[in-house]
Amino acid sequence: MAGLVISPVFLAIFRNLFVPASRPDGGLWAPCPRETRAAPEMFPLTIENFDGFGLAEPLARALRTAGFSTPTPIQAGAIPPAMAGRDLLGIAQTGTGKTLAFALPTLQHLLGERRRAAAFATRALILSPTRELAVQIDETFRRLAAGTPLSTALILGGVGRGGQVRRMARGVDLVIGTPGRVCDLMSTGELRLGGVSHFVLDEADRMLDLGFIRDIRRVIAALPAARQSMLFSATMPIEVGGLAESLLREPVRVEVAAAAPTPLAITQQVHHVRAGGKRALLADMLRDVEMRRVIVFTRTKRAADRLAEELDAEGFAAECMHGNMSQNARQRALEGFRGGRARVLVATDLAARGLDVAGVTHVVNYDLPNEPESYVHRIGRTARAGASGVAIAFCDASERGFLRAIERLTGVRLAIVGGADWLAASAEEKPRAPGGRGAPHGGRTQREGSGRQGSGRQSSGRQGSGGRRAA
Ligand SMILES: Nc1ncnc2c1ncn2[C@@H]1O[C@H](COP(=O)(O)OP(=O)(O)OP(=O)(O)O)[C@@H](O)[C@H]1O
Ligand SMILES: [Mg+2]
User: Fold this and answer.
1) Domains recognised in the chain with CATH numbers
2) Is any ligand 1 atom within 6 A of the Cβ of residue 202?
3) 97 Cβ closer than 6 Å to some ligand 1 atom
4) Which residue, judged by its Cα, is nearest atom 14 of ligand 1?
5) Which ligand is nearest to the CA of 358?
6) Which residue's CA lies nearest to atom 15 of ligand 1?
7) What single string gives the DSSP state of each residue in 310-376?
8) Structural contact between residues 253 and 4, judged by C-beta atoms closer than 8 angstroms
């Protein structure tokens, strides 16, 4: 695999875009030593505005309308090889514009091909792990393609299939969907993938884990060998990295090598708290009007339901979103939150990946996730597109191992903003068992303030190197 690591020199161009000016060493992205570098002449690295990509006029116009003039680093790095037809693995932090990095080259190619999809067929397939994310990606594609004849179809579960089948009957240029319903329509011949020239897996590491891999293999088996494939994510654990690369043909790896996989613009904090004290702590925090738009993540659907109800009863406008709800109710909750009707969205990991809601000021990990990658995606719902945000973790005694795994993966020491006394006392009560969950970090005092460590960082693409499943 050819590697293309976006260097700090190049990224200096983007200092003011998505990069907080306060970073002492002056840049968010650092070279990733593990990667072989592509010859610089292979793909130009000097594209400072979207005009440099030679995009078709309707696409360029759509970007102007959206007010986008400067490509983000992942866009600047990925779009040239993607436009050249290369298979690609793109890794960059949450909220840095990966959607456009695959949408623009795909649309440009489809516009250039001048062929129409046959009945029930499509020319491009984009898969995402959740329906809400598929809806969002579809909206992005439709906005970009507004001035073109290109058509899209959303193929996802939880809603009637009749309308989707009718849409497919006409043939569409792009299908954006979730794997279950895509496989369903494939099996009845109502979605034919033999003419697909472009295939994208967004949130690729999630799409290749156990929950989806069978469906993904079925989809890939139905795709023509001659196609362009692109995989994107903010995380790529080493366990799935090899599988990801095996799906690609002579791929280019474009990695925006960050100092840490979590954006610097997120202030990361932890409250050590008894499990039974979490709800009162959250209610107390929410009295702070600075918490204008808050996503709260729980581990279970039941906990999400209960917490949303309790918050609502206490006068905090809260919506709830999890996989046991009807699709309409899920989408309504998200739109209610997006539109400002609810100040708080209580959700499971269903809302962890990809969702782009403007102005989320805080993410609260009410329960810590057992997979540290989930933490990276969850907190990435704030501080998007150059904004800043706060991520607050609640950590009870049973979750200290999860916290250690998160800190190891992100290379960030979360600042303790509450419960330090209780942490110290309970650590004394329960001396650390071998391999068990005693005092975090071997009892070292944690730094307050930025909570950042100076060493031991892993970039987004290097998370596999011993940095996984530490809990
Ligand atoms: N070149 C650009 N200039 C300004 N804003 C941009 C640009 N590209 C994308 N954005 C905006 O940045 C936000 C984040 O983009 P996007 O959702 O594609 O991020 P992402 O990298 O896919 O994040 P995640 O890993 O969470 O899925 C969106 O609101 C998008 O409109
Ligand atoms: Mg995304």
Assistant:
1) 3-257 (3.40.50.300), 266-445 (3.40.50.300)
2) no
3) yes
4) 95
5) 1
6) 97
7) HHHHTT--EEEE-TTS-HHHHHHHHHHHHTTS-SEEEE-GGGTSS---TT--EEEESS--SSHHHHH
8) yes
The structure tokens listed for 304 are: 């999400």
Residue 319 tokens, joined: 């919506």
Ligand 1 neighbourhood includes 380 CB (under 6 angstroms): yes
- 96 Cβ closer than 6 Å to some ligand 1 atom: yes
**Is residue 366 within 8 Å of 399, Cβ to Cβ?**
no
Q: How many angstroms separate the alpha carbon of residue 99 from the centre of ligand 2?
A: 5
Left, alpha or beta for 114 (phi > 0: left; psi -120 to 50: alpha)?
A: left
Strands (E), 109-220: 122-127, 152-155, 172-177, 198-202
pTM of the model: 0.86
Indicate whether residue 460 lines ligand 1 (CB < 6 A): no
- pLDDT (tens, 9 = 90+) of the chain, 471 residues, equals 666 665 443 443 343 334 322 222 222 222 222 333 333 345 555 567 899 999 999 999 999 999 999 999 999 999 999 999 999 999 999 999 999 999 999 999 999 997 899 999 999 999 999 999 999 999 999 999 999 999 999 999 999 999 999 999 999 999 999 999 999 999 999 999 999 999 999 999 999 999 999 999 999 999 999 999 999 999 999 989 999 989 999 999 999 977 778 999 999 999 999 999 999 999 999 999 999 999 999 999 999 999 999 999 999 999 999 999 999 999 999 999 999 999 999 999 999 999 999 999 999 999 999 999 999 999 999 999 999 999 999 999 999 999 999 999 999 999 999 999 989 988 776 544 443 333 333 332 223 233 333 333 233 433 333 333 221
| Measured distance CA(199)–CA(333) in Å, rounded | 30
The preferred substitution site among 16, 59, 99, 137 for testing ligand 1, maximizing ligand atoms within 8 Å of CB, is 99
Distance CA 131, CA 137 (A): 10
Give distance in angstroms: CA of 94 to centre of ligand 1: 8
Q: Which tokens belong to 20?
A: 């907080």
Is residue 181 a contact partner of residue 155, using CB atoms and an 8 Å limit?
yes
Judged by its nearest atom, the ligand closest to the C-alpha of residue 202 is 2
- CA 436 to ligand 1 centroid distance, Å: 40
CA distance 25 to 144: 36
Task: Output the CA 235–ligand 2 centroid distance in Å.
Answer: 11
